[in-house]
Write the structure tokens for this entry.
Amino acid sequence: MAEPQGPEIKIPDPVEMSRNMARIAEQSQRLVADFLQRQNGESSAPQSLMNIGAAFMEMTARLMADPAKLMQAQMSLWQDYMALWQRTTQRLLGQEAAPVVAPAKEDKRFKDSAWDENTLFDYIKQSYLLTARWLQSTVKEVEGMDDKTAKKVDFYTRQFVDAMAPSNFVLTNPEVLRATMESGGENLVKGLENLLGDLERGKGQLAISMTDYKKFEVGRNIAATPGQVIFQNDLMQLIQYNPTTEQQNKRPLLIVPPWINKFYILDLRPANSLVKWLCDQGHTVFIVSWVNPDEKLSAKTWEDYMTEGPLAALDAMEQATGEREVNLVGYCIGGTLTASTLAYMAAKGDDRVKSVLYLVTLTDFTEPGELSVFIDEEQLAALEEKMNSQGYLNGQSMATTFNMLRANDLIWSFVVNNYLLGKDPFPFDLLYWNSDATRMPAAMHSFYLRNMYQRNLLVQPGALTLKGESIDLRNIKVPTFMLSTREDHITPWKSTYAASQLYGGPVKFVLAASGHIAGVVNPPAANKYSHFLNTKLPKDPDQWLAGARQVEGSWWPEYAKWIQKYAGPKVPARVPGDGKLTPVEPAPGSYVKLRASD
């Protein structure tokens, strides 16, 4: 009987290998020279990193101050390891042995069958999981630290634990070892080429490729819903989309998207475009396309974003359609600006907005989630110094911050795929959008971080003044639909829920399954996820959820039903350019095509 065959081992071609290494050496030399020139004069020990070190020093001091508790934790880890050694020995002797610890169901790092079937790799996997669990639980249980320091230590401990996973290293990842033997090391050579390519693309910083960027083009196969830019100023272009129905609702709909990343998250492809879907429901849809700002716009403030954003858009929409009254949608930071704008309009007696939809929007920043670990005085001061020297916050810095919130999915999985396995990333529209970073003007971003995240002034009546008007969110009387998502790492749903107790008008709160993006961009045809409904609004979000009923599928139809009360009667469909405004250029316009790397 023939012996089972293992993976075929390929002997590397020395000539081809030499040629590849010469090319890599030449590219590396150029990159290092460029990097050193760019780094000349920059501090090698940023204040923000020193601040993180101080947090860990405090944690260590408090941990060492309770030796009995530390000894108990070490004994617990020792007992877990004893159980692992015992069960590994059983497996080596051919016996069945239940695992001591198993990865979470959603953990994709250990999906290769060898992690379970091979005793050695199963041992490596369980050793890592035991140590990671012990380290994180020990850190969490340290007493005496203030809440902010505890969150910072917990967050960066998780970053360390994720980085040290055996799946991230050649010799402890069975899939990588197998690929290396089968290809004669070509995967590692190709991975090094990918690494150098990403360094070159990031101009000395590691800009990990998340997708095949050549497969997408804004305006061709993403952000391709037909329409016209009918107005523009320094900060934004206003797009009016072509009608897809013979009649439309009388009141047009304005979407104010985030300017952290770009508007086309709501218009990726026809199949998952909220923009197209709203057009198909009979709405005259307008959307703000924010500019990707450079140093010339460094002095633009939060007030400027309000004035040149939604307020300018409302004026332009009236000229384009003849309609004074509109419905409004705000997404994430665009929703925070929308709430600020509505509070300002309330102070001015401006009643043009007849309803508002907030998508995963924070207004009360009491518990802003994991992003708070980046918002303390030392880190803010360092960030402001950097922004003031450039005039803006670099888009890559923003992208890295958000990717760290889901490091295994958005960093380490690509390290393994691109650099260790030497594969090209899969074409994925969402990840193309995620990589299309935007800059932040220095003045605006400093205002936002200090007054919202650090001081939580937006929620305090009269604490903020915009265009000479003291604003109070309680004076917003327009009917409100709030959509939050249950697994949101950026705007935690229990924190967004707080605003349901604040606004002065009727509020409908809906909680969708999934996260900050997938929970929002969830077309009905996909038949994915679910959402929760509860007509009551108790103060406690957990109480709200306990009394909610779960509905399968997308939340979009729920909004479509709700908005009909405020949409007005049907009128003949409006075509961009029929009103008083002459189209500037076809959608998606030129502002969205400005890249942070340009």
Q: What stands out?
A: Residues 14-39 form the longest helix (26 residues). The mean pLDDT is 89. The CA atoms of residues 70 and 112 lie 35 Å apart.
